[in-house]
């Protein structure tokens, strides 16, 4: 048994003992004790006189009990004072079983209120002994009320108050009552089983006796001359033959009544379960569960920061207040240990069937699921557990079971099982934490709460692009709203701009309010939120052009990235651009390569110039999330998807098919080997509207941020400036660059920059051309590209072939 649990149970027991003492002392109140006690000073507990007094008391709870009873019954609330004693038991039970102290606290308030009420009612009544029940306080309250509102009025008021308090308490304690009901039912079941065991044993004994009797009378009848066997004679002593070819002296052995074996039978008498003590033995062998404390995030008031700022063009801007977000009930972190124990037992039982031995088990209760961490016996292979995922899910009859084998960095495997008390994570609660208030991340986006209840915030600037997939209704749009809102709560309109592409037309509608602050304008397009696929291609190409222009600026300033640029030239600082595409499938269906190419290009190159993509789709199939797109989005979020295949497409592994929907997600950052399960916060469209219209009502910036016209030479051709494989579109340094990467066997842009003295954007363009001509592989995040040509000769051959084309 773990120490923590033992401590809690001890404290619970102590409280129950105090409860017994309290009620017992009052129950044995004797008016005669008062006289004896009056001769004893209150601090006198030792000495002869104290012993004499204690010996003469009628109250078996000694001096302390008698004093307590005297004080409470005679001078306070009469016999009614006994009722609050029940609270000790509730506290004891709560301390031993639960982590939340709220229910017993409410119960104590309720019971004190009811005690005062009952005392007053007894004070009002004329029943015999009513005075003794009401005590001084009850009588006083009754007198006060009947003077103020009359006798009948006082009765009506008291009854109404008692009824009202009981109704309220019933609501508050409905869950506790059902728990108590379950506990009582379980206790009842145990009693019934014990009772059945006993009566079964009695019946069997009777049956044996009857059988023995009938056998001996049969023997006596068959062999009247035979001597009666002595009382102590063994049944196997040589006596008469029986039917069935037994030799004389042979008796069928009398079956011993099995002492420990007990077979529970169904109504039809069939065996339900062979229980030769297995349950008890098993539960003794079972490892104890340790409940891990969830993380308590330090709270902070987000409104207590500098809310008013001035933009670069001297326009005042005020950050939205968190009061625009719904005030919600506190997220209840109460852990129902009995349910937890039930899940643990079921899990261990199933694992036992598959012969998986567990040494230690601990549980972390998250917003939607409980993570059981299992330390396995050394001879159990981890692969065995992984192969059991489906069987376990079926055996436990639960959706949402996910196995993490092993948990990265731990000597344990994880099994996530949904618990019966899903908690909504509210947007307000995840923003009102110190972590978010004092974040130093460039583009902080809140993703939600982890299983250990920690608020998970990541930096979009380092992700650097995010791919989101999930079935319809799984929570993608809510997720995008959460991310955009966290950016609105942390960045001023100077710092960040949004390019919003919404082919579904309804998802990003509220952001129209941001047109004068956060939305870019396009040279050549009227819309600021793009909804038509053709215009989306135009807008994406505009962003590509912007990227190229930014690279030129960076080159001129002699810096490597946007952060350095903004530090070096604060007067010309560039805002970060966040490009959001809410439904890639709609675009890919109509735009195909025309959409894929600018997205890929941006994903490959745009990070350094502060352009970041958030792309969502409800169709995570390979024709939408192509290999090239996938390779360039190292950070991915999977909400619930329909199949394992979809899960593999987005995460390169299963798991997303086992999610529960409603914002339950797996986040795979570029830097971690395995995805993390997170519950996305909930933000309603009303809240998004409130935030955006708060911003929209403020004075807009003097100058909109305008994106340039894209380079469109041939409308029908794929748009890939500089990335073409045609001879005329190749950079003059192409051949030299090809030789360089093959010689060094290293496809890195910085190598070209250094050795060929090229600017970043030109070097990146040449690298794309090398890829398009099959000399290097696709970009793999920040790693150098793979060089596909082994040696100089092979390269010469390839270059000759290219020239012949
Ligand atoms: N984080 C969350 N917490 C609680 N409920 C959520 C959460 N996210 C989504 N939901 C519920 O699921 C519903 C659908 O969510 P949402 O519109 O984001 O789905 P979607 O994946 O964008 O669907 P579609 O692809 O059809 O647009 C919401 O209206 C809400 O009731």
From TrEMBL:
Keyword ATP-binding included in the entry's annotation: yes
UniProt keyword list: ATP-binding, Cell cycle, Cell division, Cell membrane, Chromosome partition, DNA-binding, Membrane, Nucleotide-binding, Transmembrane, Transmembrane helix
Acidic residues biased stretches: 278-288
Stored CDD domains: TrwB_TraG_TraD_VirD4 (cd01127)
Source organism superkingdom: Bacteria
Compartments it resides in: Cell membrane
FtsK domain span: 452-648
PROSITE patterns attached to this UniProt entry: FTSK
Principal cellular location given in the protein's record: membrane
Keyword Electron transport recorded: no
Amino acids binding ATP: 470-477
Transmembrane segments: 12-30, 76-93, 105-128, 148-173
Gene3D superfamilies associated with the record: 3.30.980.40, P-loop containing nucleotide triphosphate hydrolases, Winged helix-like DNA-binding domain superfamily/Winged helix DNA-binding domain
UniProt similarity note: Belongs to the FtsK/SpoIIIE/SftA family.
Protein's recorded name: DNA translocase FtsK
Species the sequence originates in: Prosthecochloris ethylica
Source taxonomy: Bacteria, Pseudomonadati, Chlorobiota, Chlorobiia, Chlorobiales
